[in-house]
C-alpha cells in the first residue's frame, strides 16, 4: 500500500500549460477525486501519475519512490478508463485472468485472485459468459475486476462511468466506493461531474485551467469554498453571485448564496427583495425558482411543489448565515 504525492508538477504541450505547479498529497487508502471543467488538466495529471505522459517539471511520488523515470508497468498501478475494451472472444474469467497470465502469475494465485474479484464485484454467475452477453453495467464491473485482480498499490480511474446511463451510473458509483473501501487501496478518480465528486471522494481536488483551486472534503468545499470558482462549481443548482448594489442591499464585495439560503419572504431574513420569476424547476419534493433582480439572478428554494409562474413577481429574503463573500477582483473568499 502507498500514498501518492505530486510536488510542484507541471506539464506543457508546446505553448499550453496543461498542469501548473501541482502539489497534492493523497494519503494511503484515500479516495481522491480530481474534478474540474473540460481542459482543466485532470486527465493530464492522471496520465503523468500513470507514466503515460512525461513530466515537464516537479516530481511524482508513489510511496517513498520518485516515479518520474519509472516505466508505467513498473509503477504498480492499475487503470480503469471510460473505454474499457474487453476481449470479446474471451470469457469473463479469461478477461480477468489475462493480465495475470501475461505477468506469469502462478495458476493457483490467478484462481484465488479472480475468485476474490468476482465475489467483491458480484460477477460469480457470469464468469463463463462472453462480453457480448453482458449488460453495460456488468461489462463495467468486469473492467473494474481487471484492475482489482492486479492488487496494485494505486487505482487510477478516468471517467469510468461516463458511458453508462444515469441510473446505472448512480448505482455503479456506489459499487466503486464500496469496493474501494473493502480493498482499501489508494484511488485517484477523474471526473468533470461535481455530483460524482461529492458523493465518491474522501477528498476532492478542484482543478481549473491547469491549476489546483482547492483540495478538501466534500463538506469543506461546499461550506467553505476558497474562491468564487470553487463556490460556483460545487453544488447543484449552483451558487448565485451578486453585489449589494445590484439587488439594492448594503452588502460589501461580491456575495455568493446557495438556493437553500434564498427563501420566500418571512421575518428574520435579510430583505425583502423583489424580483421577476425567470424559470421554475419543480422537482416534486422541492422547487427551485430562478428570479431576476436587476442584473442579478438568484435561485429561490421552496419546499414541496410551489405553484409559481414565469413572469410573476416574487418576494424573498436571504438567510444571513448562508452568505459568502468574495473579493470582487481576485475572486478569493473573504
Ligand atoms: P477533459 O475532461 O475534457 O478530458 P481534462 O481536464 O482532463 O479535460 P486535459 O485532457 O488534461 O484536461 O487537458 C488539459 C489541457 O492540455 C487542454 O488544454 C488540452 O487541450 C491540452 N492537451 C492535453 N493533451 C494534449 C496533447 N497530447 N497535446 C497538446 N495539448 C494537449
Automatic annotation (TrEMBL):
Cross-referenced InterPro entries: AAA+_ATPase, ABC_transporter-like_ATP-bd, ABC_transporter-like_CS, ABC_transpr_MalK-like, ABC_transpr_MalK/UgpC-like, Mo/tungstate-bd_C_term_dom, NA-bd_OB-fold, P-loop_NTPase
Molecular-function GO terms, alphabetical: ATP binding
Keywords: ATP-binding, Nucleotide-binding, Transport
Domain of life, per lineage: Bacteria
CDD domains given in the database record: ABC_MalK_N (cd03301)
Domain ABC transporter, chain residue ranges per copy: 4-234
Protein name listed in UniProt: ABC transporter ATP-binding protein
Species of provenance: Solirubrobacter deserti
